[in-house]
Amino acid sequence: MSNKVIQLERAFIYQRNYLVLSNVDFELNEGEFAYLIGKTGSGKSSLLKVLYGDLPLNEGYGKVGGIELNGMSTGKIPNLRRHLGIVFQDFQLLLDRNVEKNLSFVLKATGWKDKTLINDRIDEVLESVGMISKKKMMPFRLSGGEQQRISIARALLNHPELILADEPTGNLDPETSVEIMNLILNLSKEKNVAVLMATHDYNIIQKFPAKTFKCEDGKVHVAESESLFLG
Ligand SMILES: Nc1ncnc2c1ncn2[C@@H]1O[C@H](COP(=O)(O)OP(=O)(O)OP(=O)(O)O)[C@@H](O)[C@H]1O
Known about the structure:
Residues 6-230 form the ABC transporter domain. One of its GO terms (molecular function) is ATP binding. Keywords: ATP-binding, Nucleotide-binding. This is ATP-binding cassette domain-containing protein. This protein is an alpha/beta fold. The protein has a single domain (4-222), classed as 3-Layer(aba) Sandwich (Rossmann fold). 33% of the residues lie in helices and 27% in strands. It has seven helices and ten strands. Helix 4 crosses helix 5 and helix 5 (144-156) packs parallel to helix 6. The radius of gyration is 17 Å and the shape is globular. The two termini are 34 Å apart. The structure holds adenosine-5'-triphosphate (ATP). The site of adenosine-5'-triphosphate has 13 residues, from strand 2 and helix 1.
């Protein structure tokens, strides 16, 4: 039996008192890549937020990277976050410091202390996204695609079992989107990292077909291929 990195059983997902998704049964295996699609407002970001501990799971069962989501106190969130990497549409790099300091900030915040180990890990993740030459650059001097590579490097820092990506190609031109997709898929394979990627980018889905979950009418289901392109 393969290991599950995400397990949701009969989960109900709320934004405050508003029920966004009901009765969600959802699983992702170790090293598996899957898309999460659905119209604007259908609940993709809400589902991802539950998975990274930004929204509580009060009804149903949930486990991510071996950590149970139910009744998780705020104090346990850093522990959950150490098991996963998050990539956003708008990169969310700290603009007041260079690439290296963006990455060391995350390592220090997650308990790394040894300067040599920190430096070595930063070099490793930058090498893996092809950005070692940008180590001393300020984020605003990088292109969108380069900034997304740095944010992927940041997501890899703590050897995650899972990367949650919310529209990672949403701010990129089509050619750069393809480059970023190739990078994400290669890293997922090489490092056996599972990826759940929310997207509206049907060109990308067509070009890189994979298992696809769809949020629709308050439910999540595995999308049939013929329904993928109907919005
Ligand atoms: N903070 C909030 N408080 C109350 N309702 C919210 C909040 N955030 C989102 N919602 C509602 O929850 C529903 C799901 O939103 P969500 O952001 O998960 O959708 P989405 O599928 O990610 O949309 P998009 O593709 O536009 O990012 C929407 O109806 C939205 O209006």
